[in-house]
Amino acid sequence: MLMGLVMLALPITIISENFALEYQRKELLRMENEEKLERELLQELQRKRDSRRKRRGSLRHTQQGANTEVPTRRCLLPWNACPYHE
Asked: Is the pTM of this model over 0.70?
């Protein structure tokens, strides 16, 4: 009777262990994919922010002095038609 109990319990133990390993592997892959998507989203947001800063910076006239740039007024002309952007 004891041998029958061991014979039934052994396959269940092996199957549950394999299931746990497979579940951990899938969970790890899911987490890695989420992190990759978060990194890509962060990079995209940073690129957009940088491009907005470049556009905003090119639309302003600056007055240089004492190693600082101070925006004086907003430029309404296109960048290639403005005498300050040469």
From this structure: no
pLDDT digits (tens, 9 = 90+) for 19-62: 889 999 999 999 999 999 999 999 999 998 888 888 776 655 45
DSSP single-letter state for residue 77: S
| 44 DSSP β-pair partners | none
Q: What tokens appear for 21 in the block?
A: 């390993």
Tokens of 47: 């690129």
User: Based on C-alpha coordinates, what's the Rg of the chain?
Assistant: 31
CA–CA gap between residue 56 and residue 63 (Å, rounded): 16
* DSSP symbols for 12-44: HHHHHHHHHHHHHHHHHHHHHHHHHHHHHHHHH
